[in-house]
Model the fold of this input.
Amino acid sequence: MNRLPFTLLAGAALTAVFALAALVSFVWTPHPVDGMNIGARLQAPGAAHWFGTDHFGRDILSMIMVGARTSIAVAVIAVGMGMALGVPLGLLAAANRGGLIDEIIMRGNDLIFAFPALVIAILITAVFGPSAVNAIIAIGIFNTPVFARVTRGGALSLWTLDYIRAAEVAGKGPARISVEHILPNIANLLIVQGTIQFSLGILAEAALSYVGLGAQPPIPSWGRMLAEAQTMISFAPHMAVIPGLAIVLTVLGLNLMGDGLRDVLDPRLRRTR
Done:
């Protein structure tokens, strides 16, 4: 009997908790996310504020919920952007394997890899200013060569197979073969890689917000919550511990889910119990 791997179930459960928190934050939070109460500032977790309050008296649980919305939205859009650009480029490179187009695409990928997402974000914000949109663009640009390489690698292993040769003999062109035969057979690779890049997108968004290049106030962000807590960690550690745990658990959940999906979708790793 086939059973889903524990890593997939555990990862999906962790991810679902934060996804649910993000969805609920659209209609309800324990306290107004921008509500300041100086009299209740720096309170430790308790009955009134389950995760405590920050230096402005804002409820940290409410900020974590809305911050989850911000992090997930940035990561999803950025990964979607990287996939939308990278997958066609990878298919095109594989279809022209060894040719000039393949060489141009791969060297372009190497050029982007030379600039981490943080550097790309600094370049973009130097021109357009810091914002969540610019963070999405920076992370999306960095994701593009990742998906291009994964797509190209998976596609190259298929172009030599007999059924692809048969499709060529039947008169199908490279574009049609890529869409009808190559892409469906590497979808499992892209799904797993997408999950991994999603977790990295959460980290990248937090890092950009930490240095002030991500979502701007008054929009809550886990990375900016960490930045604001660093000078108060000695007497209000909950301000740093709680958003830090939110980032760690979300990334852990996504990585576990990615490992579980790999076990399920890759026939070579699939286990029967």
About this structure: The chain has ten helices and no strands. The longest helix spans residues 60-95. The two ends are 6 Å apart (CA to CA).
